[in-house]
C-alpha cells in the first residue's frame, strides 16, 4: 500500500498542530511525512562501518520506515511484497536473514505495508520466525499471508507475547475493529471444495491465494502466545478479513495461547484442514468468534469466547458443505469451551447467539458451557437436513455440557423455501445425551465459583479418548483456580502494559490529561520535564503512561472516573507512574467504572501530596484527599439492596448494590502518602476508601503512609486484600463497618507515637435487622501499636478494637505493644471487645467472632468495655482469647516486624488456611512475616 492511504495529509497536519496529542501510548512516537512510497532493495546494501545493527540485519528484506521514526522507543522497519529466500551471506544477529530463514527481531517494531506474503505457493518457501515480545503493526489494507509450503514460527512467551495490532494504536489512537487485515495461514491439508485433493488449488476469499491438498499432517509452523487485535478490514459485503484464518492447514501446525480481540469479521476461521488449537481467547469479535467450514477435522480445547453487547453475532458458527457428499465432512473435536453470549444485535442486524450447527457439519464436543443473558439470542441451534441427520447419528455429539440461557434452544424446522424437510427438538436432543445439563452455571465473571456444578460435571479421561486432548474434568474453559489467560492477553483483565526495563522519556501528555508548564527548579526531582494534570469528570478510558520525566497532577477537587453506573470508564495507571495532588483534591472511582493501577515490585505506583514533590516543601498528613473506590457490593445501610444509593461521607458519591462479586479493577503495588485532609470534625478522608467494593477487585501490595485519618477503610462489600503495609496513620490503620465480608492476609501495621489510634477498628451495624453483618476473615497480621499517648484528637495508641456488632475470623495475628511503665512508654490495650451493642456479645457466644493461633505481647493485653448496662461484664476478653486454639500471651522479639527464623512462638505455630480457602496462601507462622521473606522490599516506602 501507499502509506499516505493510512496517514492522510489532514490527519498528519492535525497531529503536528497538536504536537502529536494523539500519542496515548508508551514511549515516543515521531512521524515523518516525507516519502510516501519506499522500494525494498533487491540485494543487501554494502556493509559500511556506519551501519547500525538493525541496518545490517534487516536491510536485505525490509526498509526502515520513513513514516514512523520510533515506536515504544524502537526503530520501525517496514515489510512489503513477497518475502523470498536469499543467496546473500547471513545477516543474523537479533534478527535477520539466512537463506530461507527470516527472523523478525524484537529490537525493532515492524510495519506491514499492504499484503506481505511469506514465500511463493509451494515454491521459494521461507521460514518466517518472530521473536517473543515483537510488535507488528498493520496499516489500513495490510495483512500477513503464510503461503503453502512456508512456515511461521511465532513463538511468544507468557510475559512477552507477540502482538499484531493496528498502526493507529502506535499513534495513541483508540484501537478499533477493522483498522488492518489479519493473519492468514495457507496449507496443503484436505478441504472439501476440492474433488481432487492431489491437485487442489482452492482460492482464499481475499487475494485469491491458493490452499488445500492431500497432506493432513502438513505444517504451517507454530503460533504460541500470539495476540491479534483490531483487524478485519472490509473489502466488500462478502469479503472481510478474519483475525486468524486457517485455510487447509495441517495437524503438524502447533497453535496454542492465541487471542483475537475486536476483529471486524470472525475471530478464528477454518477452511478444512486438520490443525488443532488450544488455550484460545476470542473477545468482542464482530461476526462469529469461532467459525469453521469445508471439512475442518482438527480439535480445539480450552477456548474462551466473550462477545460484545450490540457488537457480535455467534460464538460458534459451524458448517461443512451444502453438498452432503462433499468429503471430508467437517467434524472437529471440541472440549472445554466457555461462551459468554452478549445482548442485542450487531450493526449488521445479527443477534448475539451461542452455537449454530448447520450445513452438514459434524462435531464431537465435550464440556461446553454456554452462558446467555436476558437479551441474548438462542444459545444452541441445529439447522438444515444434513445437520439433523448428523445429530441423529454419531456424527454430531455434545456431552457433559451446560446451557445457562434465557433462550436456550432453537429447533430445526421444515422450510420449503429453504429446501428443509426435517425437524429436530434441540432441547430433547441435548438433554438426551450423556451428562448434559440445563442449569445455572454459577460463574464469577468467566470463572466458576466453588459451588458451581461446572467444576464436577465434566467428561473424564479425555486424554485416553483422544491424544489431542488433555484431561480436564470440568465444564467450560476454566477449573475455578487456574486462569491461563493472565499475563499475555488484552481486555480480559483491563491490563496496562507493564513498564519496560527502563521507563521511557515522554514528549507529550496522554489523551485525557493536560500539559502544564514546568518551571526549572520547582520540583525536587529535576528530571521532571513534563507534568500532566487530571481534573473534573473522566468519562473516557484514560491511561497514565509511566515515564522517567513525567508526573501527573490531580487538581481541582474531586477527579471522578465515570458516571454512577453509567458512562463507565477505566483509569489505567502504568507501573512506575507518579501522581501528586493539590490540597483539596482526590480521586474517585464511580460505581461501574474501574481503576487499573498495576504497579510492580520494580516500578510501584506512587500517589502523594504536592508538598512532597515541590522543592523546599515537606510531605505531611492531610495534604490531599486520597483514593476512593465505589462499588456495587452489599452494605447494611441499605435495606433494599436492589435500590441502594448509600452516600459516601465526603462528596456524597453513591455506592452500594446487590453484587458482592463486583469488580472495580485492580490496585497493585501502590503507595499512598500524606493524604486524608479534614473536611470537618466528622468528615475526613482515608488513604484508600473501599465503599461496597466487590470481591472481583484485586488489591495487593499496597501501602498507606501518614494519612490524616484512617489508612484503609471498608464500608461493606467483599473486596479482598493481600500484602498490606500501613505506616504512621493518624486514626485507625485498618477500619471496617457496614457489612464488610472480605478477606485479608499479610498485613503489617506500625504507628507513630502520639499520632495514632488503633491498628484495627472493626464495626458492623447498630440496627438489629441490618444485614449483612461485617464478618471479614483475616490472617497473618503484625500490629505494633503506638504509645498510650493522646493524638491531636484525644485518641491513644491501641491494638485491636472489635465493636458495634461485628463478627470476624482472625488467625495468625501478632500484636506487640510498646513496653514500659508509663503511658508515655507503653501502648494502650492491645485487644478490646466493646459489647455496647448486644450483637457483638451474641457473635462471641454463637462462635461468629473468633480468634485463634495468635499472640498478644503487651503490658495491657486485654480490655472489655460497654456503655450498655445490659452487657456490662458480659465477656471476659482474656478468657475468650485464651480459650481458643493456639493462642498465647508471650514475649517475642522482632526486628522491623520480622521474627527470627528460630522463633518458636511464631514460626511453625500458625494455622494453614489454604486447604479450605484458596484465597489464602499456605502459612504455618504467626504474624505478617515468616522470618525470611520481606514482601515489602523493592516497592514500599520506609519511613525514616
TrEMBL record:
Keywords: Signal. Residues 1-17 form the signal peptide. It comes from the Bacteria. Residues 33-54 are annotated as: Disordered. This is Lipoprotein. It comes from Shewanella gaetbuli.
